[in-house]
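Hello forum,

I keep getting stuck at the same step: I have a sequence, I want structure tokens, and every attempt I make locally crashes halfway through. Rather than fight my setup again tonight, could one of you with a working pipeline run this one for me? It's a single chain of 113 residues.
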Amino acid sequence: MLEIVGFILIGLGCFLGVVGAIGIIRLPDMYARLHAVGITDTLCSFLILSGLSCHADSVNVVAKLILIFLFLLFTSPVSSYALANNAWRWGLVHNQKIHVATKEHLLNREDNK
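Reply #2:
Ran it on my machine without issues. Output:
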């Protein structure tokens, strides 16, 4: 039973990895791509490492997998922030295909109706 749960967790993690890869290809600009990968990679690594811990033989292996996940948990958001911050500082602007609905925009839409 534990092996089946492990395979399901690994499969879900691989699926999220594919979703993140599709996000890198399909989204229009660097900030949106970074958001897609930043969201999926932490959960993807958690699911894969949890599935691997279900297949582990000893407590030492599970402890090492937990340490790997904690390392990824702290470094992944920091690296995403560093990439986005440096891109912004170097002048990379958002693509206008992505529209952020602001309060004023929503009020203007209601006035036009």
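The radius of gyration is 19 Å. If your local run keeps crashing, start a new thread with the error log.
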